[in-house]
Design a protein that fits this description.
The chain is of the alpha/beta class. 48% of the residues lie in helices and 17% in strands.
Length: 202
């Protein structure tokens, strides 16, 4: 078990990639905190993980709410005395620019930008004791045009750190600075990739 006794907070974990990641992490020994605004689904997933022999808890978390983050991180740290992994997975379906209105734009920015910032900011003081491990997931319509369902990550430094193949990484960057990591297929496949990346630096 490569994540044995690691404590992981996963946002947007009630369904899809988040739920799949929670299950993979639990199977690998992590103590998983399932967070979401979809409380019934998230609580049911935590119960499912426990029933399968894993360790999991549920916390309601609106990632755009600073007080929610303070409470979720505070409660997790109070119970476990550590937080080793944060997966900023929460997200919503997007829209093409010609169909985007200011309401959808604000909602997306609150979740993707503000949410990831608030979560990362509040866990860093705790995670620095053992080393920061934060993963931001992006798939589907949030990818570069023409590659739905494929995982792309921007930045040479990030990919060289995860994959330890700087030469290959440079060769794999397109002209806009995106690294192509292959067809993710579905949430379960993405979860495996997220686990692989985290396990390399845990």
């Amino acid at each position: 078990m490569r994540l044995k006794n690691k404590v992981a907070i996963i946002t947007g974990a009630a369904s899809g990639m988040g739920a799949a990641t929670a299950k993979v992490f639990a199977n690998e020994g992590a103590k998983v905190i399932v967070t979401d605004i979809a409380t019934q689904e998230a609580a049911a997933l935590a119960e499912e993980i426990v029933a399968a022999g894993g360790e999991a808890g549920f916390l309601k978390l609106d990632v755009a709410n600073e007080a929610d983050w303070a409470r979720a991180v505070g409660e997790t740290n109070s119970v476990y005395g550590q937080i080793d992994i944060l997966i900023n997975n929460a997200g919503i379906s997007g829209s093409h620019p010609d169909r985007l209105n200011i309401g959808i734009w604000d909602e997306q920015m609150n979740i993707y930008a503000r949410g990831a910032f608030l979560g990362t900011q509040v866990v860093i003081p705790i995670m620095q004791r053992a080393g920061v491990r934060v993963v931001d997931t992006e798939t589907g319509s949030d990818q570069p045009p023409g590659v739905p369902g494929e995982l792309w990550v921007r930045g040479y430094s990030v990919m060289s750190r995860y994959y330890k193949k700087p030469d290959e990484t440079v060769a794999s960057l397109d002209q806009d600075g995106w690294f192509y990591a292959g067809d993710m297929g579905n949430g379960s496949t993405t979860a495996i990739c997220v686990f692989w990346a985290v396990s390399k630096i845990c």
